[in-house]
Each structure stands twice: as C-alpha cells, then as structure tokens.
Amino acid sequence: MTYQDPADDRRPPQRQPPPSEWYADAGLRFECTMCGDCCTGPPGVIAFTQNEGERIAKRLGISYQDFLHRYTHDTPEGRSLNEVRTAHGHDCVFLDRTSPHARSLRDGRGGAVCSLYEDRPLQCRTFPWWPDNLRTPRDWARTARACEGVNRGAFVPVEHIRIQRNQQSQRERSGDNVPSSDPTP
Ligand code: SF4
Ligand code: SF4
C-alpha cells in the first residue's frame, strides 16, 4: 500500500476528495481475498506516523529507533516501511506468504497476510477506500484491476466507505507521516 508512481495503485493519491459520491445509493462491493497484491508490486511508499511506528516497534519488541533503522527507509515522499523483492514484486517486509495460515488461504492456493495486522498503518487500513480510487467509476474500475476483492462480495454501505475515505484524506493532508531524515534519499 504505497505510492510514488502514478501507475502504482498502492500509492495514496494527492488529489482532493470527490465532489460527489457517485456510489452513495448502493455502496460498493468489496471482499478481500487475501491475495496480497496490495502489499506488493512496483517499489512504493508505505507511510506511517510516529505513533504507528511506535506501536509496530512495541509489537516487535524493539525500540522505535531500532525499528526505523531495521525496517524503514527514506523516500522522496517520506519514510516508508521496507520492501523485499520476491517473485510477486516488491513485497512489504511485513507481508507473510509462508506461514501455515498464509499457505492455507484461497482454497490452499496460498495467500498473504499482514503480520502487523492489528497495528498496520492507516493507509493499509483504509485501502481500497482511498479518495483517488473513489473519485469516479473509472477510478474504481482502475482499482478493480489492481485488487481482485473490488466488485466482489457484499455491498459495503456508503457510511463505512465515507469514514475510511475521510480518514485517508485527512491523513494525506495532515503531514503527520514520518518524513525522510535524509532530504536526498
Ligand atoms: S483482495 Fe485486494 S485488498 Fe485484499 S489482499 Fe488482494 S489486493 Fe489487497
Ligand atoms: S503493513 Fe501490512 S497491510 Fe501494510 S503494506 Fe505491509 S503487509 Fe501490507
């Protein structure tokens, strides 16, 4: 769930929220299949706030500074969780494809789970309800090409979508994510 290249659907958008909720009547269908595609792909930015980083560090049983050193890096758009190159792309370093649980997913074909799940950053929590993904039906269709859970399963009510979308929008505008320590990473 990261963002630099406009072609990378994991990256959070920089534009403003949509002027109208074209999906307001019925909501939108979404059901995560745990394929892991939103946590891999081209290199990107998995942004986090200091509070989020501190929670992750506590979960890992290490100091915040140690967490920054071992699991994050500078990007032109701020500090990001690290990624590792796999056959799938640039996986988030916290993506689990190998545990028995992950291997059992998707009818035994194997899936992927977030090993930080309860402490994952907001941008991960709010996907796919990012403002840029919701702007128009065309944007939603683009999101569907990157996420097989889109347009699948039950309709998610607009009230839920709105909360997630607005949280992500607020985060994008807030400047609360940890910045790069090196201005020329
Ligand atoms: S279905 Fe979508 S949200 Fe779920 S893991 Fe796959 S890409 Fe991510
Ligand atoms: S923190 Fe978890 S949900 Fe977010 S990109 Fe990494 S593995 Fe995916």
Distance between the termini: 20 Å
Averaging pLDDT over every residue, what do you get?
91
> Please, how many helices?
7
- Largest sheet: spatial strand order: 1-8
Number of strands: 8
Structural class: alpha+beta
Biggest β-sheet strands, sense, barrel: 2 strands, antiparallel
Order of helices and strands: EHHEEEEEHEHHHEH
Tell me roughly what share of residues is in helical segments: 25-40%
Q: How many separate domains make up the residues?
A: 1
Task: Enumerate the spans where pLDDT stays under 50 for 5 or more consecutive residues.
Answer: 2-9
Question: Which cofactors or ions or other ligands sit in this model?
Answer: iron/sulfur cluster
Strand content: 15-25%
Q: What would you call the shape?
A: globular
Q: What radius of gyration results from the CA coordinates?
A: 16 Å
Descriptive terms for the model:
alpha+beta, two-stranded antiparallel ribbon, 8 strands, 185 residues, two-stranded antiparallel sheet, 7 helices, binds iron/sulfur cluster, 16% strand
Explain how this protein is built.
With 185 residues, the chain is α+β, with helices and mostly antiparallel strands. The protein has one domain. 32% of the residues lie in helices and 16% in strands. The protein contains 7 helices and 8 strands. It has helices at residues 50-60, 64-71, 100-104, 122-126, 131-134, 137-146, 158-174, and strands at 28-30, 72-75, 78-81, 83-86, 89-92, 95-96, 113-114, 150-156. A two-stranded antiparallel sheet has the order 1-8. Strands 2-3 form a two-stranded antiparallel ribbon. A two-stranded antiparallel ribbon has the order 4-5. α1 (50-60) packs across α2 (64-71). The longest helix is centred in the C-terminal third of the chain and has 17 residues, at 158-174. The chain starts with 27 loop residues before the first strand and ends in an 11-residue tail after the last helix. Residues 2-9 have low confidence and may be disordered. The chain binds iron/sulfur cluster (2 copies). One iron/sulfur cluster (SF4) is lined by residues 32-38, 127, 147-149.
